[in-house]
Each structure stands twice: as C-alpha cells, then as structure tokens.
Specification:
Uridine Diphospho-n-acetylenolpyruvylglucosamine Reductase, domain 3; five-stranded antiparallel β-sheet; homodimer; alpha+beta; seven-stranded antiparallel β-sheet; 4 domains; 17 helices; Uridine Diphospho-n-acetylenolpyruvylglucosamine Reductase, domain 2; Alpha-Beta Plaits
C-alpha cells in the first residue's frame, strides 16, 4: 500500500489520505459489518454536532468492540496516513468530535463494558463508551456516585468526558474530573496499546502520562478504558433557589454559603433573569420558583452530606442569616427529591432553551469570581454600541459561580455574522485581560484553536506541538483540533 | 566556550561537564556572592540527604533570588552541558535532590516570596522556595490552609512538594497535591521561562503541561512559582486514637468511619504496635495514649469540619457504634487542640524514630486496602526464612490507610547488605503482583529508577523518555533520577 504524503500543504488542501473502498474492507475485516456505518443517511448524526455548528463529510464510522480492534484500526490508518476523529457521545460544544473533512470517525460507543468495581476502594473500571448516566445508575445501588454530572449525562460517554476533562455541576465538591481519574488505557496513533490502567489513589512513579490524554480531545491517543475514583453517594441532599436583587449581593451570598455550609456545599449555580426567562418561555413543563425582575439573579445552592439532620440545620441557619441580612429576598427550598429535581431542571434547561429556535453563540470561560458577571454586561454594552439591538442579539449569563465558570450565551433569530464579529475575538480578549481562561470546561476543539495564542505563550504552544509530534508523528489523530497549527512529520 | 560532548558513555563515565572556576565566576555574576555556596563544609548538607543514604560531590550550590536568575544559570549550564540538580528543602526520601556526582546544585531556597493571595478565590501564588509551614502560617489568619501536611513541613519547600507531588496526611480530604495546583512557572533546561501561572480553577485550553512538571522531580524543568488552591481552614477538628485488636477489625473500623463521619473524615492513619513502641522508645516526650499489645493496631482518626457541635455528634456516634460492635477496645479522644497535637505527634514521630539510631530501609507503596498490612507480614516471614532474625532486622508498618498508602520500615543495627538483598526487589515484586504502586508518594529519585520497569510497560517508559528528550534535549536536568535510563541527545 502506498503511504500518502503528510506534509504541510501550501494550497491549504488536506494532507491526509481519504479512506477508499479497500480501506473500508480492511475496517470490515477488523470490526465486522455491525461495526461499520457507511450509509449516507446514517452518517449524518456522526458528521454534525447537536448545535449544528460544525459538520464534516466522513464516509465511514468504525465502531470497534475491543481495544485490540481499536489498535488494529489505528495501525491501518497510521500506515495509510488516514486521519481519524475519535468520537464518544458527540455532545461537545466546540466541534472537537466532528470531522473537518472526510476523516474516519472512530466511535467508542461499543466499548461500553463495565470491567470491575472495587467496593472497598470505590474504584470503577469501565470501557470508554459507557454512558455517564448508566455508570451512575450502576453505582447507585452500590452506595457510590460518579464524581461528575452534566446536562448531557444521558448521552455523553466517560471516554469523551475524560478526553475533554468535562466539568459540570459537581466540580465544586469533587474537583476537576482529572483529579478522579486513576488510570487509563489508551491506544496511540500507531496502534500501540498504552496500559496506564492503575487503580491506586496514589502513584508517584514518574511522569503522570495519563494527564496528557485528559483534556487532549483525542489528539494524542484514543482512550479505551477508564479507572475512576467514585465518592460515596451522599445520603442527604438539599437544594434551594434563592433570589438576589443584584450581583453584589450574589457575591455576599456566596461568601456566606461557603462559611455556613462548609464541607457540604456542593453546588453554587447562577442564572441571570434573562437565562431563567428564556428557559421558562421555551421549555414547557418547568415550574417557576419565583418572580425574577429584570436584573435580578437566581442562585441555586445544593448541599450533599451524610447526615440529613445536620445538613438541614446548616441550610436553615444559612437562610436565616441571608434573609436577615437582606441578601436574599425570595426563595424556594425543595422539600423532597422531586422538588429538588424541579429546581435543577430549571438550571439544566437554560442551555437547552438557548439551543431551541433561532441561533446561539456560546462561550464557556473562567473569570475571577468578583468579576463573574462583568463580561455579560460588557457584551450587552458592545451590542448597544454596535446597534445590534436586543431583538437581534440578546446576551445572558449563567454557570458555575462556585468555580468561576461563566457560560455566556447570545441568542439570535438566525446565524448572524455581524454578531459573531462583535463577539470574537472581543470575548476572548476580555477574558484574557481579566486573567481568565477562554475555555473553562468545554475544551478547544475547532472553535477556539485560533484563539489559543491569546492566552498561551509561544513557549507553551511549542511544547504542546512537541508532545503532539512525539505521540502522533504523522498527525493523524483529530487534525484541525486543539492545536493552533497541526504539527506534522517532516 | 567549548561545548562538551553529552553522549552515552560506554565506559560508564559521566557524560557532563564539571563546573570550572570560570563557570562559578559566571554563576557569581548572575546571583552574587551571597547566592553561592562553595565552601567544602557548607556544601555537606546540600550533598547528602537527611537519612544519609545518598551523597554527591557537588562543588557549588547556586541560590538564585529571581526567575530571571534561574533562567540565566540554566542557560549557561545548558550551553556548557553542565548537569544541574534542583533542590528544595532536601527532605526527600529517594535521593531525588542529591547529586549523583558533581552536578551543580540549584537551590530554590531564596525564591521564597509570597506573590499574591486572592481571598475571594482562595488562591495563593508564591515562590517555589516558600517553606510549607510558613505558607500555612500565612494562610491561618486569612481563614485558609494549605491542602497538604507532612512531617517535614518545617523544612520542605512548596516547589519540592509540587515537583514530587508530595502526599502526606491530608490527601484523603483534599486529594493529591496535583489536584490543588492551578498554575506553575517553570524554567526549562535551556533557560526558557514557561509561564503556566494560571489561577483559575477550571482551564481546559489544551494539554495540561503543568501536570508533567508535577512529580517529575526536577527532570523536566525547575519550578520557580506555584499557584495553589487553598481550602477554607476547618473551624472544628477532632482527633482520636483507637485500638483495634487485629487488622480485620481495622478494616471494619475504616468502613464504619467512612459511613459515620462522611464528608468530615479527613485522616485515617494506621500504626502497628511495633511502630508505636519504636516511637515511644526512641522519642522522649511522647505521651502514651494506651497500652498496645503485640499484634494490635492504633488507628488515628481525624475529622475536619465547619460545625463543632455536628462534628462532635458524628464522632461520638461512631465511637458508640465501634465500641458496641467490639471493633475497638480502647481509645483516646483529644479534648482540645493540645491533646490533638499530642496524638498526631505519635504518628509524626514514627518515621523520626525509625531514623534514630542504627540504619533503616524505607518503602512507600500503594496497596489495595484489604491487603494493606499483608506486605509487612510477608517481609517478616521472609526475614525468618532467611534467618535474619528480629535482632538483625525488624519490620513495622504504618501509613495512610485511607489512601491505601503503606509505609514499610525495616530497622537494623547497621547498614546490612544481606537485609537489603532480602528486601529488593522482593518488596517491589510483591507490590506489583498485588496491583499496587512501588511509589505511592515519595517518588522515584535514585532509589526506585531501576525498578520502574517492574510496574510500567516499555510503551510508557518510551513515552517518558520521549518527553524528557523534548523538554531537556541535552539531559542536563537531574540526570540519574526517575527514568530508568537517561535519554541523551544524539
């Protein structure tokens, strides 16, 4: 078989080989007919993200069932210089799992075996294709839970979660996902199987290689198995949504909650009034917790602990102090798990609502907590200055206040390049100037690679490129993602 | 200046240039006379570890005061192929900060500035040379604490802690140190300053480069600044030492403590009777909490929380259940912070006692929790089989049960090669076969590099070597440490 050249192309053409019918025959010999998707209609959901922002033209999806199959598929693609896009649940928000052209899509969906659960240590080992919600359901009767929770839990896969270091609503309590990952099995670009599948909580034996794959969005290897520390399932959970008249008192409430709720505080989620109203208007079935005048904020507080009596006492004391100090002027405390789910549903439906009807521009950024909401105001001001009035582009903010992770959404009637030009690079410049991060939890993907240099110095980008070359010398893994430029072999 | 060759030497000689008087003049021009140590007597403590297991013959210690000085020193050493050993508080236990020959020692001791503390976010930014205890003292009046605590806190430096991903007694509560490190400033081998000094809790912008330096023991770069997330200081701490008659009930007590103490359980430390008796015999001033017959265990439990009333109720309930179930048959609960310190002092003096008089062999390993104590028994059995009776070599076990991190110490009257041959590779083979890690928290250093291949596959070792070559192509940083072989440039 001829080896295609894989050099930088001055004409901007794609430097990889397109998979031929013969290549697809090879894939078939490895994964069987049931492990292939080639029908044009069936390919559509693999070639597009759920927001319909990015799309590719891949003509084949390969769904291996075992690590050995992943290895053989990659070895073939490596030898032939065929580019490969690893894809999990395809719930990403930055185009990281969508082909840029006609790459082969390697889906981890069938790598969905639960390998082991160590009850004494609380360590779960499973295939990359396990759906997050299914893992949590597996752990529930065993008294444990997954240390992450996000809106896409019913679809996203743990391998994709790990590859993007996914955030969500439990980071405040359990830390970043990378802190819970104890071990990984990864297949490198050339098919080498890298066994880093440790299950020990402590392991200081040289460079922690697995950290490189966590958040690499499939550009350094394909995660095939994950060992993850699972915390004991909290036996007492309480949820409240409180109304704060302005952002200054939101900050006071946050400080008070940290003191009064201490170690049981598990989530502090913020929604501005427009975020709540958008969810209410577009998602029938949500129960309105309170009236929220323009400019006010809803703060969702959650505690997770081991003693209901103690936890209720702490939440009660917090509310007494917050109302007495006039930090909060309205609120709802869930009386049972069903009401708690209703309150969480509002928060979870904000991004769903933003994606319903019209077009949205989404930004996921870290900002210092005192300046958490400033960016939303800056964007609104910019829209006014540029006469992009509210019927054309409306900005709202919500997100994980506890981690300094703001989600800024801009909803428009339709795709609007003028709005986009008003937003980019403005939003990223603002965030970098404020000492934040242009991607808090969603990753880089296709969306932010061009902006990475705003935040990272050339020294850091050079090391990233050096690592990419060392791990994937032909650059076949997820080209056009994460790195500002694709380093390729000479 | 001539550039020395830096190739693998078949004669086993050191492939680096020795620093000459001219080189020392260059260092003097960078750091001044006050930043140099060249006097033979003054060099001794830098050339030896505190256990006196490893020693080097460095003739110069350079103590830069700024990052720029670190950069200039390294650039010179890189150009001249002079090997460099980064050294913090020199409290390591595997020879990682001790020269193997006459490398230049680069001490971080004078990089000890506190750069910033962000009270809203709880983020501390400081120089690598800050002593851990000094940082905790700085944070105390600010209502925060460092997320790690270890016996060497009065001497060890945060840069060394980060470079070794140091463990200690707070891992159960706050996770591994790497989970708390938000940002680093690192100087690479050639003097390049790498600014990764982020302070955001969430930052998913490509490969998390800082993770490579955490635990690299100075082989990939010199950490010069650290930004670390500091948790709120617990306002209620309680400590108890309980006696368990055998290891099976220790495991029952651990399970019960996790349930009853939940999120406030902050430490579960185990000591066998010989560990306690060794501390009592060799460290005057310790207060005996209880009689501990041969074969019994002392378990130190600590809770750290935000509400003294609730926390005391939880600890009381645990003790009632433990005594009622006859899991525990004696114990002491500290009534105040002074008594709590007395109980911790016993645990902290076990390693000190082992280092007092005679000679010790120390092993720091991860093992699955149900098999936590089995290794100690296996070593004792082996000593008996080899007729290395107890007056010649006595093994005891203690450590962080909550993290599966056993410390196995063997005390001898003197250095005893026969005992060493009985222990190595036996201990490492046993740990690997049990699915553990041959280094839980102490790192690899000089001690364990030859054994790394027992635990890591050739694929992982090859990637480690590739990273080393990419970051330090001439191999000048801490040669003879961590990696089984020193990869050098061609």
């Amino acid at each position: 078989m001829a080896v295609a050249r894989n050099l930088p192309r001055e004409d901007g053409a794609f430097g990889f080989t397109s998979a031929t019918a013969e290549d697809i025959d090879v894939f078939r010999s490895i994964v069987g007919e049931e492990g292939l998707v080639t029908d044009a209609e069936d390919l559509v959901p693999y070639n597009t993200d759920w927001m319909k922002k990015w799309s590719g033209s891949s003509r084949v999806v390969v769904l291996p069932k075992t690590t050995v199959q992943v290895s053989r598929v990659l070895a073939h693609c490596h030898a032939r210089a065929i580019a490969v896009v690893p894809q999990g649940g395809n719930t990403g928000l930055v185009g990281g799992s969508i082909p840029t052209r006609d790459e082969v899509i390697l889906s981890t969906s069938r790598l969905n075996e639960i390998v082991a659960f160590d009850a004494a240590g609380g360590v779960l080992t499973c295939g990359a294709g396990c759906v997050l919600e299914a893992l949590d359901a597996y752990l529930t009767p065993r008294g444990h839970c997954v240390p992450l929770d996000l809106g896409a839990k019913g679809t996203c896969q743990i391998g994709g979660n790990v590859s993007t270091n996914a955030g969500g609503v439990r980071v405040m309590r359990y830390g970043a996902l990378r802190a819970s990952v104890l071990g990984l099995e990864v297949v490198l670009a050339d098919g080498t199987v890298l066994d880093l599948l440790r299950t020990n909580r402590k392991d200081n034996t040289g460079y922690d290689l697995k950290q490189l794959f966590i958040g690499a969005e499939g550009t350094l290897g394909v995660v095939t198995k994950v060992a993850i520390a699972t915390p004991p399932r909290p036996t007492a959970v309480s949820v409240a949504i409180l109304k704060c008249p302005n952002f200054d008192v939101v900050l006071q409430l946050f400080a008070l909650a940290k003191t009064a709720l201490g170690e049981i505080l598990s989530a502090v989620e913020l929604m501005d009034s427009l975020a709540v109203e958008t969810a209410m208007a577009r998602c029938p079935g949500l129960k309105r917790p309170m009236e929220l005048e323009d400019g006010a904020f809803a703060v969702l507080l959650e505690t997770s602990g081991s003693c209901e009596e103690h936890d209720k006492a702490k939440m009660g004391a917090l509310l007494d102090r917050a109302f007495a100090a006039e930090i909060v002027d309205d609120g709802v405390i869930a009386q049972d798990m069903s009401q708690a789910a209703d309150l969480w549903a509002i928060r979870e439906h904000v991004p769903v609502a933003a994606a319903t009807g019209g077009y949205q521009y989404k930004y996921d950024v870290s900002v210092p907590i005192p300046r958490f909401y400033e960016l939303v105001r800056a964007v609104r001001r910019r829209f006014q200055e540029l006469s992009l009035a509210e019927d054309r582009a409306a900005a709202f903010g919500y997100g994980h206040l506890g981690d300094g992770n703001l989600h800024l959404n801009v909803v428009c009637a339709r795709k609007d390049d003028e709005v986009l030009r008003a937003l980019e690079p403005f939003v990223f410049d603002w965030v970098v100037a404020a000492g934040g991060s242009i991607s808090a939890e969603h990753g880089v993907g296709q969306h932010k690679r061009a902006f990475l240099g705003l935040q990272k110095g050339p020294e850091a980008l050079a090391l990233m490129a050096a690592i990419k070359r060392a791990f994937d010398p032909r650059g076949i893994l997820n080209p056009g993602k994460v790195l500002p430029d694709d380093p390729v072999s000479q």
